[in-house]
């Protein structure tokens, strides 16, 4: 309504209302290699496209005469009362995407304003302590790329605890970089420009390893490369678990057997995702793994991302059992267009669409979406 009323008074919407529109404008706003890095995926990007297309194979069945005047989209996640079931997925080049070069801070401020939690990436332009400080009362999570150096991993986790993050998300599918033809073709990997390393360059354990701790932080790039790729195995899980009493969530679990093993190993949450098709091509769309992951999680919270482009997509993922739904590229494009305001715009639009859809289709609550017959395969 706000948008229609403003239009009545001649105020044109500042940001595009569709994902395609956001992408088009973001492409023009970003440096070409940053655009390629954000928009691109692995291989010929079949999985990336399939992630999005998968949502079209599911449809909500409208219920009438429900009078769903009020909808309840609140969710309890690890004991945190969240106003909505959306969250900002971790993205490692946010700094490069924002007009002022501090995209992690802008995104954190958008989280503060909307109540939508941010999962802050290890690879941020500003250190996690500064990012956390911008989140206001909205809970945040820290995403860990687990270094091979265990002391450094422990230091990052303990800093996240001290900074007030409410959970640790360990990403499992990125111990090597995916085969991304767009980045390979441009010969540019924006992270290697030396941005996004603040969590390392501000870390006492990392600094102690540097040959020249007071030199240009970009000099640390090679050290970063050497600590980044840790091919974790199930044998590492007890150690990971021992690092923190905060909720521990594993990102990248799609196979039900992996979900069961993770649950047995004492993790608190499952994060079903294929990294937006950036890491491996040829995989199943993440949405198709969701119901199996939810069943195997057997009551453990299941976060989901990969391919969510609209409020309707978020509703479908919730109906398939996701506890909370992550947004990736859409908010990065909003960030590119308008910093904090752009991210707020994307989140508010997704939430408004989801809420309106539930109103029109007669679903008052997230539980009602999960009742048999609410969501069917088209
Ligand atoms: C990511 N993603 C990601 N994930 C993670 O755990 N740590 C990270 O640092 C990053 N970095 C990153 C950079 C960029 C540019 C993108 C687009 C994505 C993956 C992200 O958390 C999420 O899984 C996907 O973005 C979800 O897919 P969609 O919504 O972008 O299709």
TrEMBL record:
<feature type="binding site">
    <location>
        <position position="273"/>
    </location>
    <ligand>
        <name>FMN</name>
    </ligand>
</feature>
<keyword id="KW-0288">FMN</keyword>
<dbReference type="InterPro" id="IPR000262">
    <property type="entry name" value="FMN-dep_DH"/>
</dbReference>
<feature type="binding site">
    <location>
        <position position="275"/>
    </location>
    <ligand>
        <name>glyoxylate</name>
    </ligand>
</feature>
<keyword id="KW-0285">Flavoprotein</keyword>
<dbReference type="GO" id="GO:0010181">
    <property type="term" value="F:FMN binding"/>
</dbReference>
<dbReference type="InterPro" id="IPR037396">
    <property type="entry name" value="FMN_HAD"/>
</dbReference>
<feature type="binding site">
    <location>
        <position position="37"/>
    </location>
    <ligand>
        <name>glyoxylate</name>
    </ligand>
</feature>
<feature type="binding site">
    <location>
        <position position="171"/>
    </location>
    <ligand>
        <name>FMN</name>
    </ligand>
</feature>
<feature type="binding site">
    <location>
        <position position="180"/>
    </location>
    <ligand>
        <name>glyoxylate</name>
    </ligand>
</feature>
<comment type="similarity">
    <text>Belongs to the FMN-dependent alpha-hydroxy acid dehydrogenase family.</text>
</comment>
<feature type="binding site">
    <location>
        <begin position="328"/>
        <end position="329"/>
    </location>
    <ligand>
        <name>FMN</name>
    </ligand>
</feature>
<feature type="binding site">
    <location>
        <position position="251"/>
    </location>
    <ligand>
        <name>glyoxylate</name>
    </ligand>
</feature>
<feature type="binding site">
    <location>
        <position position="143"/>
    </location>
    <ligand>
        <name>FMN</name>
    </ligand>
</feature>
<feature type="binding site">
    <location>
        <position position="121"/>
    </location>
    <ligand>
        <name>FMN</name>
    </ligand>
</feature>
<feature type="binding site">
    <location>
        <position position="145"/>
    </location>
    <ligand>
        <name>glyoxylate</name>
    </ligand>
</feature>
<dbReference type="Pfam" id="PF01070">
    <property type="entry name" value="FMN_dh"/>
</dbReference>
<feature type="domain" description="FMN hydroxy acid dehydrogenase">
    <location>
        <begin position="11"/>
        <end position="378"/>
    </location>
</feature>
<feature type="active site" description="Proton acceptor">
    <location>
        <position position="275"/>
    </location>
</feature>
<dbReference type="InterPro" id="IPR012133">
    <property type="entry name" value="Alpha-hydoxy_acid_DH_FMN"/>
</dbReference>
<dbReference type="InterPro" id="IPR008259">
    <property type="entry name" value="FMN_hydac_DH_AS"/>
</dbReference>
<feature type="binding site">
    <location>
        <position position="278"/>
    </location>
    <ligand>
        <name>glyoxylate</name>
    </ligand>
</feature>
<keyword id="KW-0560">Oxidoreductase</keyword>
<dbReference type="InterPro" id="IPR013785">
    <property type="entry name" value="Aldolase_TIM"/>
</dbReference>
<dbReference type="GO" id="GO:0004497">
    <property type="term" value="F:monooxygenase activity"/>
</dbReference>
<feature type="binding site">
    <location>
        <begin position="90"/>
        <end position="92"/>
    </location>
    <ligand>
        <name>FMN</name>
    </ligand>
</feature>
<keyword id="KW-0503">Monooxygenase</keyword>
<feature type="binding site">
    <location>
        <begin position="305"/>
        <end position="309"/>
    </location>
    <ligand>
        <name>FMN</name>
    </ligand>
</feature>
<protein>
    <submittedName>
        <fullName>Lactate 2-monooxygenase</fullName>
    </submittedName>
</protein>
